[in-house]
Design goal:
heterotetramer, A: 561 residues, alpha/beta, Pyruvate-ferredoxin Oxidoreductase, domain 3, Rossmann fold, 4 domains, five-stranded antiparallel beta sheet, 18 helices, 19% strand, B: 279 residues, eight-stranded mixed beta sheet, 8 strands, 16% strand, binds thiamine diphosphate, binds iron/sulfur cluster, binds magnesium ion
Chain lengths: 561, 279, 561, 279
């Protein structure tokens, strides 16, 4: 951690990259203040020889470039008596609350030393310290530095020197935090990617070629990453005047035949609600990636929370069944978004894919996620003769959609209730028939195994979703070691509900623990409303921005109250 | 203009008309506008399936279903945004937005100014009856401030604004006004508007005989633009800001930059993109 | 019923007014097509010596001025073999489906007769027929005609003649449908009012003096009625450019100290969602009257449905607790709106009052609803010294609000998460404290008995809400006559939930029947999510536009499946 | 102008400043604008508690909490609507809307044109840095079309629009432009704007030194309006549509009708209203 500009985030990123090159997996998340520039910053990194999707209960090493405003971050960096704190000796005094953990404090003359080295800032030395401490090869650290900072006046030789000097420094104090050894990496499939990038790529894999967006934190870097790549693929991303425009542009393009999407966060999703209803009623595919942040209202734009679940599920007026999905890890942002495109196109229905600030802005070292099996594309009407009924009631509820330009199949996509042809109708029979049809197509579809990640067996079941899932999986693994058989069910498909699949997954369950990051227990109430839960139900439901850690879940599991 | 090219007409007005019966009041100005649109499309010889008619909500916005074109009858006020998406995804289609003064200028005002600014190649046809017809008679942004209504007894006291001046300031590339009582005149303007690149804005005065019966007398009030259209925004601005609101004709024909970025085929591949993610 | 312009609605209104003058109670609802003018129209009237809040299972008399498009209305006018159909002999042929009921058809020469009478249209004669048939004094019918049509070229003498001639006509055929006798009316307290007018009046009683609205069917006649009256009271109603503007104007005015409100229907409510979150976070009172219509999307603007419940409850992003109320009858629109203003002001929280097209556009003859007891007004901060903490955490969660203009108590109302003072904060502790506070103030408040209408006792309980309640009360009364003890619980307060009160009301219940007018059973799922229901739960959940009739509920109660 | 009346100054700039530390980047133009606003309020001798500062979301929109006035920091783009409600409910307050080019012209565009049209007596101060600062550098409606950014590589290709021309066409009653680097000049314009009845629109060029560092050179680009402000909309329209966007000064001073309907005391009573419901 350090003041804005001190280079804390850069240090973390370089460490992640170096470790990745050497074959480790890892996760980097960041915490920043509201300032655009000059605020304080914290990079949290977890590294391991196997894929990492969440942080643990505490950190082993804390490196402070300075202690300015460190108080703001204390809650986010739990330490233990085994932890090591490394601080620049010029950085001021550490907050007493941190030392209360019992962690050992080592101060190093990073600033002093850097002054004597050309183009070297203290954070590069710090990287050298950390690399040596963790067992990340100095060579990889040096390469990472050169690639990133090379353009900024740091020569390769000086970089190598700085890393080596940092390494030297770490021999001046006893330590014991080497990473578990790795087997090395497969250069083609070892990826470094953020959740927002992964989601964008998932959309591209799914065939999205048009995007209309309005910037909003923490979603903006998704379209920023996507724009040039979409262009390369012959697609187009347009920045609209507001969120209402962006979702309407998406519907227009999708009506025109192009798989299309938008990105936003809570406040923007709220603005899109009316038009999402249009997508439902007029049966126009559309993908909405909502990267959740702290709410309500403009809330806490830079922090994570799972509290847009309600609006995603229920925020449309009238009876408006639609698709809601939740991504569970940085890499899963790719899979889930890809699936969202497939489902939306197949079901001619808007799909909201929920990610959050934690996932979206976290950087991960992961295996390249396998593409999903190709799904059948949008069912398109073939030129025929006779009357074309755009909204014909079919056995599976899906009616072939005609693409503008096709002769003889002209129709009007209509958000007014309509008959099978598409002509507005206020008759009870047409209303019922179309409501039934729109519900049926979602209910009758076979979602396969992707509907949920299910892990383990046991009478105790954790039900969770989204970014909280990783902590739940980890807690369950620990509980198993402690002798408690725990099963985890983490639905990726949040809507439509899957009562039969859930009943099967819950078969034999006696106790359920619901885990989610919301103040009002939105997920718990949603489950209650739609599923048969075991008699004993407990809930861990906390608002953001602090993540729910595996230890808190484990503690709850083992100390039944 | 449309007569420059000699083409064998393949389509007549009725090829653009669907069998759905309009819900409009007998005598509504929108009937005339609809027929002008059909004439213009026929004149341009556009296959109905190559035309997208996009609208919001209102009596005027009901037009898509009355046509044999592809129609998109969306939510209130957002037609221009939907049309933008459609045109970018399918540049080869002819896209016409049919809207009302409430739909385009009140709730849709933001999309109105930004569509003008962005200047995508499509035509915005606003049937301006200076009232909300569909919701039974409330003032719109073009309603005179002293018009008495239930919701604003004695009038709103608000100056109506000049949509053509706003469109010009915002960046529209073709600006004209027609009168529903002159379907041929409107058709002619629409032909020109559709042919002109960029965002063409056509305001058509279209009487609401139910809530603004006095508008029947518009036929006596309208008068043709005495001067030729200008290509100079500053000059057009001067003229439109001193206009009485009843002059018909073409006012501005611009050559402002057009938003062309469109969905097509790129020279990159997904594999290339993915390769860059490997470390 | 009749073609648009034939005067069907006028006939119904005149009959209602005449009956009201003579002391009966009654209800008139209407069904019209999408046309602005020239469509078909149906007025449905129910009259009784005691207050009427819903229609029955069928109608006793159907009067057709003509049969054009009558097919569209068949589902809305259930008849039995005892019913009487009166038709103009010039009106064409009745639809066979209507006659299939076995009802008796009488044709009368209304058009012919009217031709000979100056200024008289067939519908006035029809009114004469109906008045005589039902036992409504001809004098009252005549007066009603004179008041309404007098200005339109019908003299008092001709009106009296027409009513008398109509009365004569009804002696030409046998009939037996007189109204049960009434005890006469109390001229001061016997009101003729629509639900939208009642809601407007409730707002005025509650102290609303500023309203900003955007027109939308079926809410528009509410502000249209309110505008001149608000002006009289020194208030102001402004038509905004869109719904987002109207709700923001409301917040601005309310921040300024004026109790304020807006009106809308589903699509408009969706557009307001983002700003409602601001009202929650910045704690600004605001009342939103949402007159529901068929959804989703622009749906069926002229028809009723209870399907905006979800968006009203859950449509805000983030954790955003707020108040949601449902009015149960035309007269109750007044009470519930008045209460909405009181709660919103007291709790510094937006209150959504749900009405629907059925209630809003129905006209009723009712007793003047008693005003609610005055509630404590908005808690206002007194000029003090020292730092003013706008969002101080208090025992009841309500913090005194300073009104602009007050010296030394300046603050900034903020939708970003903030500390007690109001300064934006992204800290976990501030977020938790403010989330807790905003929830606590709603949970700790004592809502008294208004929270629900509860009727009867029994192990079988109907739970319902809004306009469907009246049919449930009537069905329960009939069930009791049939020997089944039935209790009805109809919460007026939908959010925050009242688990203790509901548990008490459900004490001893063994079987619950949920009744609501939505396709996806929104109310049922909401109850499941938040309340402990009896083991046996059944649901009647139908979309609009057809109302749920008492007979359907009774049938379900008695024929347990 | 502000100097016409001689008043004993009771307030100084610092009386309008709160203790909250701005989150702005060092060197941001918004610092200068803030200080101009304080100077103007002090010059007008307005008690801080009689001033309402209303904003949306953005770096610029953060101002309310930095003042000692009553502040309303609402949602993105809707400040003008909230301010309209506040001013109508409390006509005696001085209401200033502080906004950015994204907040006021992009998402807030509809309220912008309708606030101009409605002409309620308040002042709209837009800190225009031709970029979205708070979300880290995306183009706004005033950003040049060739400005390269992540979200629009190579530029949007869209002509920036002229907010003052749009405001004029929509109906604003006072239109001026200032430059953040000249706090005295901006303060002087703000004094005039606040004093002028109706909707006063002041665009202040306020460099975003983080995402548009080239805007530091604006101090060399701006130049004062060589001609006196006009009261004729047509003339103003001509001038604003040929302006280069860097002229500072007052352009238009109008006497368009003002929306005055306000909440006060009426001559009717609730009982009277209820009596009419009895039959
Ligand atoms: C979000 C939303 N708000 C309000 C409405 C109600 N509404 C329907 S049409 C309309 C106004 C239509 O006026 P205009 O565009 O002038 O069309 P006209 O009927 O006069 O042709 C309104 C306010 C709606 N359907 N949706
Ligand atoms: C509904 C909504 N959409 C998007 C955002 C994200 N957002 C916050 S500020 C901003 C743009 C601010 O730009 P501008 O008004 O020019 O202010 P600046 O930061 O440049 O001063 C955006 C898009 C938001 N907070 N709310
Ligand atoms: S209400 Fe007016 S605009 Fe609507 S159909 Fe009738 S005449 Fe036309
Ligand atoms: S990002 Fe730009 S506008 Fe925002 S504070 Fe920094 S310099 Fe100012
Ligand atoms: Mg209109
Ligand atoms: Mg800006």
């Amino acid at each position: 951690m350090g003041s804005g500009g001190a280079g804390a985030i850069t240090t973390g990123s370089l460490l992640l990259e170096a470790a990745g090159r050497a074959g480790w997996y890892g996760l980097l998340t960041r915490s920043v203040g509201p300032q655009i520039r000059g605020g304080e910053a914290l990079a949290m990194v977890r590294l391991a020889p196997t894929p990492v999707t969440s942080h643990g209960d505490h950190f082993h090493v804390l490196l402070a470039l300075d202690w300015n405003n460190a108080n703001r971050f204390i809650d986010e960096v739990p330490l233990t008596a085994d932890s090591l704190i490394i601080a620049d000796s010029e950085g001021g005094d550490p907050p007493p609350a941190l030392l209360a953990s019992g962690a050992r404090l080592v101060t190093l003359p990073l600033t002093d030393m850097a002054e004597d080295m050309e183009g070297v800032r203290p954070n590069v030395l710090a990287l050298g310290v950390l690399a040596e401490l963790l067992g990340v090869p100095a060579e990889e650290a040096t390469q990472a530095v050169i690639r990133t900072l090379g353009g900024k006046g740091l020569s390769a030789a000086h970089a190598a020197d700085a890393i080596a000097s940092g390494g030297q420094l770490s021999t001046t104090f006893p330590h014991s935090h080497p990473l578990a050894p790795t087997e090395g990496r497969n250069g083609d499939t070892h990826w470094l990617i953020t959740g927002n990038e992964a989601a964008a790529l998932g959309a591209l894999r799914g065939g999205v070629r048009f995007a209309a967006v309005y910037p909003i934190t923490p979603a903006t870097d998704l379209p920023e990453w996507m724009a040039p790549r979409l262009k390369k693929l012959g697609g187009h991303l347009i920045q609209a005047e507001d969120e209402i425009a962006s979702i309407n542009m998406v519907l227009g393009a999708s009506f025109g035949g192009a798989p299309s999407m938008t990105t936003t966060s809570g406040p923007g999703l709220a603005l899109m609600a009316e038009t999402l209803g249009l997508a439902v009623a007029a049966e126009v595919p559309a993908v909405i990636i909502n990267v959740m942040r702290g709410g309500p209202s403009t809330g806490i734009p830079t922090k994570s929370e799972q509290s847009d679940l309600n609006i995603a599920l229920y925020g449309l007026h009238g009876d408006a069944p639609h698709i809601v999905l939740g991504a569970q890890s940085v890499a899963d942002c790719l899979t889930t978004t890809h699936w969202a495109v497939q489902l939306s196109e197949a079901l001619q229905c808007p799909a909201i894919m929920l990610s959050d600030q934690f996932l979206g802005q976290a950087k991960t070292l992961c295996e390249r996620p396998e593409p999903l099996v190709d799904a059948p594309p949008r069912r398109v009407a073939e030129a025929g003769n006779g009357r074309y009924d755009r909204y014909a009631v079919t056995p599976d509820g899906i009616s072939p959609m005609s693409i503008p330009g096709t002769p003889d199949l002209q129709y009007t996509a209509d958000g007014l209730e309509h008959n099978a042809h598409g002509t507005p109708s206020s008759g009870a029979a047409d209303h019922s028939a179309q409501l039934d049809k729109r519900r049926a197509k979602l209910e009758l579809f076979d979602y396969g195994d992707l509907w949920a990640e299910i892990d383990g067996e046991g009478e105790t079941v954790i039900i969770t979703w989204g970014s909280t899932s990783a902590a739940a999986f980890e807690a369950a693994a620990q509980a198993r070691l402690a002798g408690l058989a725990v099963k985890v069910i983490a639905p990726r498909l949040l809507s439509p509900v899957q009562p039969a699949k859930m009943a099967q997954a819950l078969n034999g369950a006696e106790r359920a623990l619901i885990v989610e990051q919301s103040h009002s227990a939105q997920f718990y109430h949603y489950l209650r409303a739609h599923y048969a839960l075991p008699d004993a139900v407990e809930v861990i439901s906390k608002p953001g921005p602090l993540p729910i850690r595996p230890g808190a879940i484990l503690h709850h599991l083992l100390n039944r109250n | 203009m449309g007569q420059a090219e000699v083409i064998t007409p393949m389509y007549s007005s009725k090829d653009y008309k669907s069998t759905v019966k309009p819900i409009w009041c007998p005598g509504c100005g929108h009937f005339g506008v609809e027929s002008s649109l059909f004439r213009a499309l026929a004149h341009l010889n556009l296959p109905p399936e190559q035309v997208g008619i996009v609208s919001g909500i209102g009596c005027s916005s009901r037009i898509p279903a009355y046509t044999q074109c592809y129609g998109f009858h969306g939510v209130h006020g957002r037609a221009l945004a939907a049309a933008t998406g459609l045109k970018l995804a399918r540049p080869e289609l002819t896209v016409v937005v049919t809207s009302g003064d409430g739909d385009a200028f009140s709730i849709g005002g933001n999309h109105f100014i930004h569509a003008c600014r962005r200047n995508v190649d499509m035509t915005l046809l606003v049937m301006d009856n200076e009232v909300y017809g569909m919701t039974k008679g409330q003032p719109s942004p073009t309603t005179p401030g002293d018009w008495d209504s239930k919701i604003a007894p004695g009038g709103t006291g608000v100056n109506p604004f000049a949509p053509m001046a706003v469109a010009l300031a915002a960046g529209a590339n073709f600006i004209a006004r027609g009168f529903a009582g002159d379907p041929n005149g409107v058709a002619k303007i629409l032909v020109e508007a559709i042919q002109h690149p960029g965002l063409s804005f056509v305001q058509v005065l279209s009487p609401c005989i139910t809530y603004r019966p006095e508008e029947k007398f518009w036929k006596k009030t309208v008068h043709p633009n005495p001067v030729a259209p200008t290509r100079d925004p500053a000059e057009a601005g001067h003229r439109l800001l001193s206009d009485d609101g009843f002059t018909t004709g073409v006012f501005f024909i611009g050559d402002r930059p057009i938003y062309t970025a469109a969905v097509g085929v790129g020279e990159g591949s997904l594999d290339e993109i993915e390769e860059h993610l490997a470390i």
